[in-house]
Here is the input.
Amino acid sequence: MITLRVSGEADLREVQLQLLREAMALDRNCIQAAEKGMAGFGPHIVEAAPTYLPDRYAPVFAGDIRVQTFVHLAVMPSVRVRVYAHGVRGSRDVRAVNAGRVRHPLFANRNHWYETRTRRGVITTEFRRMRPELVEAINEELENVAQRVAKV
Here is the structure.
């Protein structure tokens, strides 16, 4: 929490402008901090895939994986991460793979699909490992903004 004491109309306007500038900088810097913190998430999933998935499917899945980061700072500040994978014939079911289920046709017969159980958590485990770094980067930015505003 930041506490400011301002007296006089000119000072109030100056502080108001400074707070608006800092709010815009906070938005921009939090987005950069979140993207920087999540930059290694895709490669971490690629590295971890062979320990979670079948030998032949791991390189295919790892090659198709994509990560998007969304930062929302309005009413309820949040950082959302979307992990998805597009295969040759459409989207891969990343939720099912993360839950430990891989569906596949046997011998390319697309009329009969089979489910193979795999180790769970290829996405969530890696995200849990990276989460402290992401939270730390955003908290550092919030502290920097608090220090800059306190100087005004």
